[in-house]
Amino acid sequence: MSFEIALSGINAVNTQLDTISNNIANSATYGFKSSRANFSSVYAGTQSTGATVSSQTQSIGVGGGVQSTGRSMDAAILGRGFFVSKDISGQSVYSRVGVFSVNKDGYVVDGSGRHVQGYAALAGSTTLGAMGDLKVPAGQVAAKATDKLEYVANMSADWSVPALPFDATDPQTFNSSMVSVVYDSLGAQHSVTQYFVKTGTNEVTVHYGFDATVLPATTALQFNVSGQLTAPVAPVALALGTPTGADALAVNINYSGSTLFAGEATTSANAANGYASGSLSSVQIADDGGIMVQYSNGQKQRAGTIALATFPDEGALTPAGGTSWIMSNDSGTPLFFTPGSGLAGKLTASALEQSNVELTGELVNLMTAQRNYQANTKVITAQSQMMQNLMQAI
Q1: What is the pTM of this model?
Q2: Could you read off the pLDDT of 347-358 as tens digits, one per residue?
Q3: How far apart are the C-alpha atoms of 180 and 47, rounded to whole Å?
Q4: Is 29 exposed, middle or buried (0-12, 13-18, 19+ CB in 10 A)?
Q5: Domains of the chain, with CATH numbers?
Q6: How far apart are CA 71 and CA 353, in angstroms?
């Protein structure tokens, strides 16, 4: 009986060694979670028959360190949750490894080429779209015509009224000017010039030019004795005409916040919306899980949001290849959230979660397992010698 008991101990230690060696081998594997072999005694009725590894515990709830990578498509989960991907068979797999990229078809994929799951972006809305494969839109982002211009400045109270009528070609007939860049519906760039002329006490009249043409429209800015703008309060609608091949262009100019103080004339805001068309230049993951697409015209759009899955019993997930897990009956069904919401942890972009293997502890476990293995082999050796002695005595 001692042979069988010692053999069971050796087999159990072998299983423990497999677990320890796997932990050590994956000490540098991103997103890896260490396991522990749990021993239990075995009895036949009241008769002890040795030991066995009754279960293996995964330390999924123990986070690894976070390593900054500087790569825009890397992400680490801080807290609970798993990234969700689907393989070619449509099976969902769950991982803590946030190494992503965009494949030739525009899909966001993990390091094994599986399609990453998340919520689609809905144009003009912050509402989450349907969950599915995340995909980056192909082609260019369309141009957007300018329709707003925010202009804030101090029109110097020290200005004098020009002696001659306004003439855009004669700087002596206006006190100051400022050029703003606007875009038409085709994305072509144009210039809007504002010419500021002091026309009375606490009054400045603005003349306008579009590209090389002076427009007939004017606007009188009125200020009170404290130098604050009193009129116009609403934005000024300025028709700029119809550029060749494009839609008619009109811009609302907002002068709110402008002043008339003594001293130097200064401009604190000169910002027009609108932009030219642009091609995709880069893709990056934001801390909120957003797949952000950067275009050559400086615009940034959200293509979708990464989903994170949580489980009632994440320790019961079944390990799979590629440092990932699949759902089991004991793990329960997944619940899906955006990063930082519900039960899901937050993301750290441009970073990866390191293995949670504590290498020093594993080496100690290795020495303990070696000692236990040797002790069990000693039992077999002793039993063998006793049997040999018995046979010699007979």
Answers
A1: 0.78
A2: 999 999 999 999
A3: 93
A4: middle
A5: 2-61+355-393 (no CATH), 66-138+283-353 (no CATH), 148-272 (2.60.98.20)
A6: 13
